[in-house]
């Protein structure tokens, strides 16, 4: 049985030291914010978008597909060898060492290329406001504000007979929304676009994801099968990840600021629709009667969109989705988001704090 040589052991030790060094560096959000997020990362992100953005397909999805097939091939190879040579059920030490080295290297690359953004000070620091504990009255108030906004936007869309553009045109409009937001918030400036439809829409429908960011290629992928009224806000959310907002509530809030500051009715409606649902679910946990009262006051067109969304979720309901959500929740917890999947809805706290300090949501 092949045993690890000194070179393999030394390599693992070096990788462990680098990983520990990254964790030590990440322990200071101030240093991460100033030297990584505002220093090195914009160059990394811009380079990746310049490199892969012009491709007419998602290089990141090709990479994920290749890694998936490679993992299956290696597993099949090991099983064949196990049957042929009647080996012990446990792989040799060298195999464990190689596997450990691979995941250590993956961890290091992930953090250097994007993951350190989980440890930054974040958008609250940039926009000079603090999230605080909020009261039930404040949740009721934000439900009312968002209700008025989502109804007004839906009315405008219907009155102006605005239709949803093609995926390509929607991506262009998203870039324009960021350009508009950057006039007031320069740190939301976005260049060298790299947003693409996902190859894995079918899987995304069943696993419940609407988009994702690939830190190894710098591409943002969007599930273009989800209802069209959600997609403008999803686009903004995924580009926010590209800009270094790694935590889900921060990407939600940055996307919300961009969408609502864009002046584009499609984007404003998409953001207010999503935020109203987050806020209403938040209120429902403590006061279901008032939450249902707000739902009853929604514009008929908004109610129709909610039914469309429910039908979409119902169509793809399956036993695998809760498992996937649990796994992803654990990933979020491991990256400084202790609330797991609930982190997405924490954007309600951001909007409340923003509204308290600056008035109307979205600035």
Task: List its salient traits.
about 375 residues, three-stranded mixed beta sheet, 15 helices
Please explain how this structure is put together.
By secondary structure, the chain is mainly alpha-helical. The protein folds into two domains: 6-119, no CATH class; 131-358, no CATH class. The protein is 67% helix and 3% strand. It is built from 15 helices and three strands. The chain has helices at 6-26, 29-52, 59-85, 93-113, 123-127, 136-160, 167-182, 201-207, 231-242, 248-261, 265-284, 288-296, 300-315, 320-334, 347-358; strands spanning 195-197, 211-214, 219-222. A three-stranded mixed β-sheet has the order 1-3-2, sandwiched between helices. A hairpin with a 4-residue loop joins strand 2 (211-214) and strand 3. The longest helix is centred in the first third of the chain and has 27 residues, at 59-85. The chain starts with 5 loop residues before the first helix and ends in a 5-residue tail after the last helix.
